[in-house]
UniProtKB/TrEMBL annotation:
Residue ranges of every copy of the ABC transporter domain listed in the record: 2-250
GO molecular function: ATP binding; ATP hydrolysis activity
Taxonomic source organism: Rhodovulum imhoffii
Keywords noted in UniProt: ATP-binding, Nucleotide-binding, Transport
Signal sequence region: none
Keyword Ribosomal protein in record: no
One term under GO cellular component: plasma membrane
InterPro entries (UniProt xref): AAA+_ATPase (IPR003593), ABC_AA/LPS_Transport (IPR051120), ABC_transporter-like_ATP-bd (IPR003439), ABC_transporter-like_CS (IPR017871), BCA_ABC_TP_C (IPR032823), P-loop_NTPase (IPR027417)
Keyword Nucleotide-binding (UniProt): yes
Name of the protein described by the UniProt record: Amino acid/amide ABC transporter ATP-binding protein 1 (HAAT family)
Coiled coil: none
């Protein structure tokens, strides 16, 4: 679904992404792991249009999307979340979801004044959809709560809910488990698996929790120093000497020395 070829992103003399090439298969849950500074979030930002690449290409379903703006990718069904959740804190959880779909009639002053019936009908439909999303995510009891009052994990669920309001095709999740307790992380994991299996969502996620990665992801792609280092099942990745060296600074043959 997504093909990245020889992608580079330089910040002056620093090569954050340095010739990365990878593929994300349709209806897969792909994990992206690597040590801090490996270029994972920068890669996400380039794919999602937040940053322009220095060189290289990104295609989606065979179409070149290199350098497209985030709003253009949004309309193609490509969405990206961030390590720190972004919500309208003074609005309710339901209202946060209702804000997501583009092209609503109420966005224009003319319709707000002269097509009130149509605007009201759209809002009722959006409210029903938002409630369905919240029920799917098992946080329907928070529908009227101000989003700013949610816990970190609940905000991550709300971000996932936003992707459901526009029926996304592929979602890039950046450290969805950061600051989330184990119970809510399991709830998030369950929602991702259900969206993948029941609704055909494709996911690519950055995460440091290897138990979470192993439970959800196949394949797992490892980055180090801006390049793709390895790819395979979580089990094979965790046995890969190059991966261990990237994380620990030594290979398997010196593993005992590290543990000593």
């Amino acid at each position: 679904m997504i093909v990245v070829e020889n992608l580079h992103k330089h910040f002056g003399g620093f090569h954050a992404v340095d010739g990365a090439s990878l593929e994300i298969a349709e209806e897969s849950i792909t994990g992206l792991i690597g040590p801090n500074g490996a270029g994972k979030s920068t890669l996400f930002n380039v794919i999602a249009g937040v940053l322009n690449p220095t060189s290289g290409s990104v295609t989606m379903a065979g179409e070149d999307i290199t350098g497209l703006e985030p709003h253009e990718l949004f309309h193609r069904g490509l969405l990206r979340t961030f390590q720190i959740a972004h919500e309208f804190s003074s609005m309710s959880v339901r209202e946060n979801l209702m804000m997501v779909p583009a092209g609503q009639s109420g966005e224009t002053l003319w319709n707000a004044w002269f097509s009130r019936g149509r605007v009201a009908g759209e809002e009722r439909a959006l409210a029903r959809k938002a409630d369905d999303v919240l029920e799917f995510l098992t946080i329907d009891h928070l529908a009227d709560e101000k989003a700013g009052n949610l816990s970190g994990g609940q905000k991550k669920l709300l971000e996932l809910g936003r992707t459901m309001m526009v029926d996304a095709k592929i979602v890039f999740l950046d450290e969805v488990g950061a600051g989330v307790n184990r119970t809510l992380l399991n709830t998030i994991g369950d929602a991702i698996v259900r969206l993948n299996r029941e609704r055909g969502y494709t996911f690519c996620l950055i995460e440091h929790d290897m138990d979470f990665i192993a439970r959800l992801c196949d394949p797992v792609i490892v980055m180090a120093e801006g390049k793709v280092l390895a790819e395979g099942s979580a089990e094979r990745i965790m046995e890969n000497e190059a991966v261990i060296e990237a994380y620990l600074g030594t290979g398997l043959k010196n593993k005992d020395k590290v543990q000593a």
